[in-house]
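Pilot study result, target chain (159 residues):
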Amino acid sequence: MIKLSNLADYGVELMCCIALKPAEVHSSAGLALGSHIPLPTVSKILGKMVRAGLLRSHRGLRGGFALAVQASDISIADIIEAVDGPVQLTNCLGEETSDCDRISSCGTRSQWYRINEAVKGALDQVPLSQMIESVPNFIGDGTVDDLPLTRKIINQGTR
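Predicted structure:
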């Protein structure tokens, strides 16, 4: 199974929370409260985002965190890599020396490299701004008035 770490998933969620209100400075405590992610975990992730250049840290009484660049310039791959390091589907694809004794005779390593690049490329193509887009207009904003069946039931009940 290929899956993101919990920290990477939380990182995307926290970055979405910040990107929804890009003009605001967001506190760690406020983000923890709103996201239901424990404060120590939020603090750890936000620190990684600052070190990666995705967030700016503001000190002081009303300090917190804000986007360092526009949400459209941050990819999901950027966020994942800030938290977990490089996207790497198998152990032998990393820049560090692998402990696999089959690297020299492996017949699939080059294909795994191609697959890894395709996955990373797909994650690079999804900007943070796309993750926070609203529901398309043809669906509506999710209110009761936008649901045709609900509207029909309500109208029948008032007759």
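One observation from the pilot: Residues 6-85+127-131 form a domain with the Arc Repressor Mutant, subunit A fold (CATH 1.10.10.10). A full batch analysis is planned for the follow-on phase.
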